[in-house]
Amino acid sequence: MKKIVSLLAALSLIFMISLPAYAQTTEITTDDVQQDIDDIISYIHDGSSFSLDDAVTLYYLTMTAPDAIPNDMMADFFNVVEQNLAENDGKLIPTNGENMATYAAVINLYYIYSDDTTPDDINGFDLIDTFMNYDTSTITNPYDYTVILPVASNLDEDFCYTLTDKYIDDYYTPGQGVDYWGYSCDNVANFITAISNTGYTEKYADVLTDAMEVLDTYKVDGGYCFNPEYGTDANVDSTAMALMAKSSYYLNSDGDISDEELQELLEIYDDIMAFKGDTTGSYNYDGTESAYSSFDVLKGLNEFYYAVMANEISSEFNDLDDEENYENASDDVDEEIEETADDTAENAKQVREPVTAVNSTPKSYFPKTGDLSSEIVLAIASVAGLGLIVSKKKKDD
Question: What pLDDT does 1 receive?
């Protein structure tokens, strides 16, 4: 793994220093969660190649496990993308028709995997421009915003605000949630995740607070139900969606995770594990192993992974109770920043401009602590320019 990944962790350590420390309440680690994620990917992906229809699926598969998809398979996928662009005069048109989520997912995948092509110039086609000028009146599935908004937030602030406002106006009813074929736990959970992962939680604090209260109405014994009108039994899909929403909301709204919040997430995680199937990586829906349900669990674990990471990072600093230890840790971070800058300067030069021209301070999934030094802010911007804006890890060369 490139040093850029360790830099992200190092920067996160800086952020956590200024936040209240709290005790780790469980023995679960990011390695444990990553193993759960890897098992699901092995279960749901049979090794076949990916079509353009799979772009959003790839977005989720690579969020915490980019190494799970071989380089040659991603190269084949990019060939499919480029062929589709050529055939459709610069537009991406999957089997079910053009949609904005496909553009968002492909943009993100190029930043993660491609060393020599950026999404603003794919054989002369500018996907970022197409994405930002997309006819948003054609968005008919609110779940698409879970992919669209995080990408939009790192391209243009006002553009992201416009999309988020449209999402709220079109679908959200205060006190009830998102109306898409009726109200449900899954609907409101995706709403919370989409807006939280833009980083603009303060701007949308009122609607997110309301949505979190709505989400809690679906809590039942053993997890979360889809809609009490159809039964109050917990199911793994809705429980996973709740884990996804609460993990992203807590990390992005408060900047850290309290003992109470972490314990709540761990209880939801335990509820999900109770649905494990006999086949490694599988999860049961109504007593039967389901690839669809397992994919929903993957989405929840992707966000939970970073909640656990934040807890681990905070624990690393529990012992930094004197100035010498603090200074030593800061020196280590400075060295990491310098090494990473040397190693990645050329790559950053290629991709930073389209990403940070408008929004030079990326939305971090880690805490924001106010006034950071200019050196740290620049280092964060460099990280974003290397594809760590939306996904949080970088693929090996």
Answer: 36
